[in-house]
Amino acid sequence: MIKNCIPIIIAFFVHITFLVNGQNNCGEESQQIYFMMEKHHIMDISPDDSLSVSVYNEILETLDPYGLIFLQSDIDSLSKFTYIIDDEIMQKSDEFFLSFSLIFKVRSLEMLEVLEEIELADIALNLKDTLFYYTDSEPTNYSHNKENRKKRYQRYLKLEVLNELFDKESSEDTIFNIRFTDAGKLCSSKFQEIKNREKRQLVYFHNHSMGYENIMQLIYLNTITTYYDPHSMYLNTELNKWFQGKANASSYSFGFTLEEDFNGKVKINSLIPGGAAWKTNAIHKGNVLIAGTWKGSKREDFTLMSIDEIEDFLEQSVDKSFTLELLKANGELIKIELKKEIVQESDDIVNSYLLESDYKMGLITLPSFYTDYDENISGCSDDVAREIMKLKKEGVEGLILDLRFNGGGSVTEAVNLAGIFIDAGPICILSDKIEKPYSIKDRNRGTIWDGPLVILVNGYSASASEILAAALQDHNRAIIVGQNTYGKANAQVVIPLDTCINKNLSNLSFSKKDKAFIKLTKLLIYRINGESNQQIGVSPDIVFPSYYEPQTEKDNSHAIANIPISKKSYYTPMPSLPIDSISYLYYERTQKETWYENVKTLKDTTEKLLDVEYRLFDFDSWQRSKRELLVLKENYWDKLDDFEYHYSISNHSYNKDLVEIDAFFRISNEANHNRILSDHEILDAIFILEKLIKLK
Amino acid sequence: MKKITLIFIVFTFVGSLNLASAQNFKHAGEYMEYIGNYHNKINKDMWNYMSAIARGKGVRRVESKRTDLIKTTDKSLKKVKAMGAWENSTEFRDSVVSYLNICSIILKGDFEKILDMEEIAERSYDDMEAYLMAKEGANNKLEDASEMVQTAQRKFAEENGINLIDSQSKIDKKIEKSGPVFDYYNVVYLLFFKAYVQELYMLEALNIGDMNIAEQRKNAMILYSDEGLLKLDTIKAYKGDMTLRKSCTQYLDFLKEEGEKHMPVILDFFLKKENFEKQQKAFEAKSERDRTQEDVDNFNKAVNEYNAAIEKYNATNELLNTNRARALDKWNETISSFLDRHIPSKR
After folding, report:
1. Contact A446/B267, CB-based, under 8 Å?
2. Cβ contact B124–A2 (<8 Å)
3. What is residue A262's predicted lDDT score, i.e. its pLDDT?
4. Which residue has the higher pLDDT, B41 or A623?
């Protein structure tokens, strides 16, 4: 009984769905979700009071996170549902849904009127006040009357205005050097800006292209699916079409698709492999769009725009250069120059570089595990294989594979990619509801690269990235460096919301349902040593310092627990790598170089500054504390770019010819070289690889 | 390519007595002889089967001989199973039953009845490897069972005052003589096969343009050729006959050279082809007006390099095809003549 690798694609496309016809009954849909989950979801979870409490709280938190819209009396009337939503689901009832969506509709429109009434003078920017920080576990409290709610809203606006007013790049900015009395103009224009944004926020659901009822239903049904686990999701085929349509709408594109979250933030939803955004190596799924500037035109603030407005704005030109400002997951704000390109499917999707110091080394960056869902492109493992063959011809003695910010993709591709580095053997173990856990193996004898190998990961390397890193770690094949990975060891399938589909999905192709879909967690993934990375992640063999703590799987509420299995997996690891001695050499380096001290100081000081129970909350105090933060940033953060490197970067000979012939390739290539040279973690990875080559 | 699988089992259990048969046994010798008779029948079919393989008979003929052998084995198994105890002891009978049972299972390939096939699937990476592993496991089981039969037989004879005379029939002798020939052949063949199958996979991958698998299989082919050549050094000639060893060495030398010297040219061509197509696309994307002399020169340089690569690729491919056919023919001829020389004649 030899099991074939099941191609599992962890869908990373869909986030918000569009219920176009809107005729679905919410109660019925919720019951269907329950049936589907019971049959297919990897965990045996039955709806009970705890589901009810979770759905109840999450709905309130999603719609009104700061308690600015609902009144305490609304909450009192809704609270009767706290423990009965599970029963409603079983009885196909949508009473809770109708109640909260009706109340929210009324209250949010009320707040729109309130907002219109509030003037700059009402928020009293210079008035001394104190802002207290509560922990997440404390429930939101609500206003007892409308007057009280208005005051609360004014304080909220005051905070927003102060925040934005002092959100500057430099501590030398004029705003830090003027008195409140002289800042009237600045304050009033910022107040108008915030007011506009808040208005948009309040009518966001009312004006949604799906219609108010449908977007509310979508939010409600998704609070049910996320109770099962954070990656399960209720969705609709229309969205897929919508995204596909957007991605292919023009032959020239920046090579990304966008999504709008429930709060109206517009984010990168996916990158088209090989597209302009992909090639920058700097843009990743989940990055929030902040602003954009067409060359020679005015900068547009994307935080004030809807996804459709941004899409239209991005359509303005085909050949002009464009500067995109993004907020990365680690809080870093980046500016990227982009130019639209025709996405050529046969193009090199994987980037590789030749690094030279005392040794010749190769660097391959892989932002996601794309697969050959389309016959015209090969999967990422084939593309990486080709790049290695090209680098080998240059005589490289070691290889770095950069998986930072790689959030996963196809499990099959991860297995095939591991096969490039190991002769043959198990890569991971899969466990589902249907049969005994089974190993997924690299069945192709032989390797493409059997030399020194370093894998670079961080807290955003998830899923398929973790499978690869863990397998190479267990086989003693590579040194894993960077930061602890995300900790997602489960895989999802997207299937129609059709209760007739068999547990083993054998009759999936016969399903005629195409209105609603469900993405659900069907598999748990284990390392070949039988352990799970779930919530834990892959611990690097050598940890690189970092000044930020990313949000990972363990921070998700309802994340699936780390469940042990007993499963025999047969493999012969390679001889141990000299990790201890290289680790020590790296430690010595961190003691000698001031760069590491700067990272540590930055991390400690930022933590100290952020870890406060309350903050003074007026123009002068905010000016002072924001400035303090900026000075800190300037003292340490900016120093993080200040280091020396000892290596040179170039292309393998196959690309050298292309540099001569393709002008745009030349430009993007140079930008990538500069980005790599200013990346301290690459420098650290090179340090490790050099030692590994030397000790080989 | 012929004769892919040829690891098989030579049935050995010692001594048959030439006595008459009956179901109501008058004495222990008769009891033993009854079993011996079935052993003779099996041996006859066994020999027919072995000869068919050794003489390179067609697949259908070999298969029909195997079917005959299975039928005889199953019939014998049924008969021996039906025998009563001898003086309250069924030890001898049971050991024969269990031995014949394993024989039947192996001949039919029903390995899951005696082996943990799930474990074998876990440990192996393709069907061929799983099959070889299963065969090996089954052989070990058969050897154990054979030893048990011999022990039980000796004990039975001793307890019942029977003097066992090793009176081998002509066929017994032929089978016994053939056993080591096949053992030797199997060892050498496996070294050939391990590398050969990697080449097969490599060529398959090249046919569909899968560079990833082709490169991996190429490296595995070199690895197994090296491993095989090293082991061949330690294998002696079979009764002074060096031919099989030498021919295998020559074939592995060919694979090694193919992998180390010629395949890089073939694989590199595929990369150059992709690269040229990219350059062509970039060149053609520029309108003729916009092209500088430098652009044209660069592109012409690329065209010339690509043409040179095509020529080199074609020459290498032709050379490989010729050498591969020659080496394989040589290997197959050597196997035929080797078995012909050392397996006793059919009659």
Report:
1. no
2. yes
3. 66
4. A623
Side chain identity at residue A304, one-letter code: L
Rounded CA separation A101/A211 (Å): 12
Distance from C-alpha of B32 to C-alpha of B101, rounded to nearest angstrom: 18
Q: How far apart are CA A313 and CA A300, in angstroms?
A: 9
Backbone angles phi, psi at A428, to 5 degrees: -155, 170
Within 607-666 of A, beta carbons closer than 8 Å to B belong to 654, 657-658, 660-662, 665
| pTM, full prediction | 0.81
- Give the span between the Cα atoms of B51 and B339, in whole angstroms: 10
d(CA A291, CA A303): 7
Which two three-digit tokens encode residue A392?
A: 């080998």
How far is residue A210 from each of residues A112, A132, A215, A268, A306, measured CA to CA in Å?
21, 37, 6, 20, 14
Q: Mean pLDDT of all residues in chain B?
A: 83
List the single residue in A347, A424, A660 with the smallest CB-CB distance to B298. A660
Phi, psi of A300 (to 5 degrees): -105, 135
Q: Which chain B residues are within 8 Å of A346, Cβ to Cβ?
A: 274, 277-278
Q: How far is CA A502 from CA A36, A228, A256, A521, in A?
A: 10, 20, 35, 15
Q: Tell whether A569 lies on the interface with B, counting CB pairs under 8 A.
A: yes
Token pair recorded at residue A584: 């020590």
When CB atoms are compared, the residue of B123, B220, B272 closest to A446 is: B220
A476: left (phi over 0), alpha (psi -120 to 50) or beta: left
Low-confidence ranges of chain A (pLDDT < 70): 1-24, 134-139, 236-252, 262-263, 342-348, 372-377, 664
- Looking at residue A470, its pLDDT comes to 97
Contacts with B231 (C-beta within 8 Å, 6 or more apart), sequence order = B191
The Cα–Cα gap between B107 and B223 comes to 33
